[in-house]
């Protein structure tokens, strides 16, 4: 490993390690790109691909992102953008869960879709795309439905779960699972010109409160549809929340929802009551 570190340091210029050097190291020492990036970050070498990060993310924080594991439930409108941005941010391990294949109606808004990929599984396409975007990222693609019964298996080791679902029923199951598993959940939803984002930490009930009047059906997106831009906006806000949670920076959207109106270009913050604290009688 000393030879690897020495080789990487020799290739570093102005504090930045170019991708060509990472790739050459992987080939020369027969290592994965993930292994090379880990060694580089552990030794304070900042990969040049993240150079626009470093005024806001230090090398130790970039290492923390790379050592993080995030689960994205849904690889469609929201999920495609979330996955792409997480990989470009440098999150090292990503779980991509989706049971569906690409269909023609996805083409107007789902960044992972194209006419050539119609009929292909969304999760598998996501893995292939992220391998092209950032070969150092490890993607686990799962072509399956998420539910309470398989949650611990599908999301094993995840530090954050990102809701990119289009079903309120499954979304509520994800919220319940995350409380059981003790991991934060970043929730996003879209419909037409509108969307909202919230973060729920273990023991909180923000998502359940948002949908407290829901009875049945997928949600308002079935009536309003979705254009190309709404998923991109909401997904980017979700990724910002994930980044803050993983790094412990800023103020996440806890016990509140950010409602977005792109037609009038307005944002509104709506607060929700924190979950009541259950006191245990020591007697």
TrEMBL record:
Signal sequence bounds: none
Origin: domain of life: Bacteria
InterPro entries with a match to the protein in the record: ThiF/MoeB/HesA, ThiF_NAD_FAD-bd, Ubiquitin-activating_enz
Listed SUPFAM superfamilies: Activating enzymes of the ubiquitin-like proteins
MF GO annotations: tRNA threonylcarbamoyladenosine dehydratase; ubiquitin-like modifier activating enzyme activity
Gene Ontology BP, a term: cyclic threonylcarbamoyladenosine biosynthetic process
Pfam families per record: ThiF
Residue span(s) of domain THIF-type NAD/FAD binding fold: 50-272
Name of the protein described by the UniProt record: HesA/MoeB/ThiF family protein
